[in-house]
Amino acid sequence: MKVVRIASLLTALVLLPCLGLAANPGTASAPGWETQVSSHAAVPDLIIGIDKDSQTFYMFTRKSPLEISRKLPCTTGSTAGDKMREGDMRTPEGVYFVEEKVPGKLDFALYGDHAFSLNYPNPVDRLKGKTGHGIWIHGRGKQFVSRDTRGCVALTAQDISALNGHIPFGTPVVIAKKLSWTKEPGSSEQTATQLAERVRQWASDWQNKRDRFFDYFQPEKFALTEGVSFPQFKSHKMGIFARQPWIHVMVDNVRVIQGPDYWVTTFEQYYRTQDLISAVGKRFYWQKDKDGAWRIVGGEYTEASPNIEGRYLGAKRAEVERMLKGWLEAWLAADVDKYMAYYTDDATNGRQTNAKAMRDYKQTLWVSKSPTRIAADKVEVSMHQKGLKVSFVQTYEDSAGQADKGMKTLVITPKGDSWAILSESWSKI
Predict the structure, then answer these.
(1) Residue 181 has what DSSP assignment?
(2) What's the domain range around 23?
């Protein structure tokens, strides 16, 4: 998928914002999009809403439920309707995202002191043949008049200055002919919940290398927005599936936003193999296919927050603790089958260089010396190339009266949605 890279366009954007060079609006415009922003469970924490009919700028903040934190007058394109082509003087309608603050000194009369670029055209726009670029949210230093831009959204110079520092990168912007909002979950709750779960299922199927991973995509549309044939995309992924012994995919902070005939999911993704670690933000654009299923028609990369590795380890720690609990219980019960199920076939433990040798050793040992107490304290989880390293203080007692205490270190490797022990070492305290 393509990385959102607008920095390379900045020079052109500074010179030609809002694309007003060809002021030929064309003939009559289509009826506009009307939508409602609701407080469903997966709504983003911050949303900008633009009501073109009332020329109103809203900033919504999720404070259980969604609340209007700012309501300001704005001005949009001088021609009514959804933007379709470069120079038509219309403001686009749909879901967009703040890319970055436009750098450099601006023409104060036209743009005020601050301007923020949007990702128009988004993947669905491109599928519809929409053209143009350079759509901003910016100030207006001159006299403020409704419907007075070349396609951008403009606020007063005073209002845009007050918002500076409060519109972070990636803020969703919902632009509609008519926009309303509700504190209630609204009619979109069911679809939003379904799509949030679809993202998590997609990640799980990717992690487990399931064939149905590819069913989440609409092949023809995805190929058009991504610029690569779907068979090429599939072949590339299948090659990775074959080469990598394991893949880990964590998705976090999944949010869902309704568009005109599409929905957008945003999330952060932490991806691991033995050879690669990648942390990114992602947007997926979903449309219903002929069979009524929601499928991905396009995507965009963004930046992930800097603490995502810590969140990954936090999520994995819960999995590790569940694994340790089951492993210790099987050990205490001297259940060799359940105990060995926690190891890989090539696991090592000191002199035992594979799982069979470990099984034979434990089976013989437990005949005469069965465990009576095993505890793991001060558990620490850290990254390891082959998975995770788990260290803890181990206390052990057996039926023969033997007792010891030492530092146990496990290297564990992914096994489906769980973990398996690859190596085990112990040193006496």
Answers:
(1) E
(2) 7-181
